[in-house]
Amino acid sequence: MRLLTIASLLVIGCGEPDPPADPPIRSTEVCWADRSCAVELVVSHKADGVDEPENSLAAIAALADAGVHAVEVDPRLTSDGHFVLMHDEGIKRTTSADEHLAVSSLTLAEVQAYALKDDRCPTPDTEPSRCRIPTLAEALDTAKGRIVLLLDIKDLDLERLVAVLNAHHGLSTSVVRSKDLDFLSALTHRLPGLLTMEWRDTQAGALDSIENRGPLFVQVEPSDLDAVQAAAAGQQVRVMISTLTTLDPYLWAYVDSGALDQEERARAEAEALRDQGVRLFLTSYPIETQRLLTGEPLTP
Are residues 237 and 220 in contact, defined by beta-carbon separation less than 8 angstroms? Predict the structure, then answer.
C-alpha cells in the first residue's frame, strides 16, 4: 500500500509544471532595468491616489500595499543640507504653516516642526509616518523592497544625493529624473547601475535623447508622442508622459464627481495612449490607471 501511494504521487506530479508567476515589480531590478519588459508602469504623481498626505511615508506605504509600481516624490534641500520630500518650493500649501516659507530657508528641525495638512494631523508627532515631512532617506527605507521611487530632484546637489542613495539602497529603490542631462551623466558616473530618466520638454530634445543618447526612459510632452513613437520603439526607449491633462480628467470625473459614464472614456484614453507608445504613466490616479491597463473594471 505504501509503494502504491508513492507511485500514485509520482504519476500525479508528472504533469506539466505551472509556469512561474511574474515577480511583483517592487524594485528597479524587476522590469525597470529590462528594455524588453512589456509591462506598462504606473507612477503615482507626488504620492497621490490614496487617502494620505502627498509626499508622506504613509502614502508611499499605502501605494505599495495597493500594488502600484512607483511613486514620484520631490526631494528638496533644507538649509542644513537634508533632502526632504516637498513638491512646492514653499511649505504653506501642504503643511500647517500659515505663511510662505521656502524649504531652503529652514533647517530640517524647522521643517519637521510643521504638520502635513490632514485632519488627522494636529501635530507632526501625532502619527509621524502620516503627519511629518519625511526625509529622502526615510522614504527610501520605507520603499525598499516594496515600491520604486521616481525622484524628481529639485536641488541638484550631487554629493549629498550620492551619499543618501549610497546609504539607503538607492540603486534598487530609485530612478532619478531630471531635465539636466549633465547632472544625470555625473550621477551615473558616480553610481554605475543607477537608473535615470531624461525629461525632455521639446520634440527635438526628446528625439535627440532617443536617437543619440539611448536612455532607458524619457519623459516627453503628450503632444510629442506621435513624433517620437517610432524612434522610441526602434531604440527600445520607454516613454513616460504625465496624464494629468489627458487621462486624469476622465478619472477625476469618475472617481471624485461620481460621473460613472466616464469609465468608458477613461478606458479609451488609456488604450489610445498605450497605442501611441506610452510605457510609463505619471498620474494622480495610479490604482485606477493600473486597472484600466490590465482590463479590470475601475470598481473592483
Answer: no
Contact status, residue 198 vs residue 241, Cβ threshold 8 Å:
no
- Taking every pair of Cα atoms in the chain, the longest distance, rounded to a whole number of angstroms, is 82
Model-level pTM? 0.92
Residue written as cell 531635465? 179
Mean pLDDT by 10 residues, the chain (300 residues): 35 48 88 96 98 98 98 98 98 97 98 98 98 98 98 96 98 98 98 98 97 96 96 97 97 89 93 96 98 89
* SS3 track for 69-93: CEEEECEEECCCCCEEECCCCECCC
Listed as own residue / partner, the contacts of 189-198 with beta carbons closer than 8 Å and 24 or more positions apart are: 190/158, 190/162, 191/162, 191/165, 191/166, 194/165, 194/170, 195/28, 195/32, 195/33, 197/150, 197/240
Q: Kindly state the DSSP code that residue 94 receives in the 8-state scheme.
A: T
Q: Is the dihedral of CA 104, 105, 107, 109 positive or negative?
A: negative
Q: How far apart are CA 80 and CA 65, in angstroms?
A: 33
Distance in angstroms (rounded) separating the CA atoms of residues 81 and 68: 31
Do residues 280 and 240 lie in contact, with contact meaning Cβ atoms separated by under 8 Å?
yes
Please check whether residue 146 is in contact with residue 64, taking contact to mean a CB–CB distance below 8 angstroms.
Answer: yes
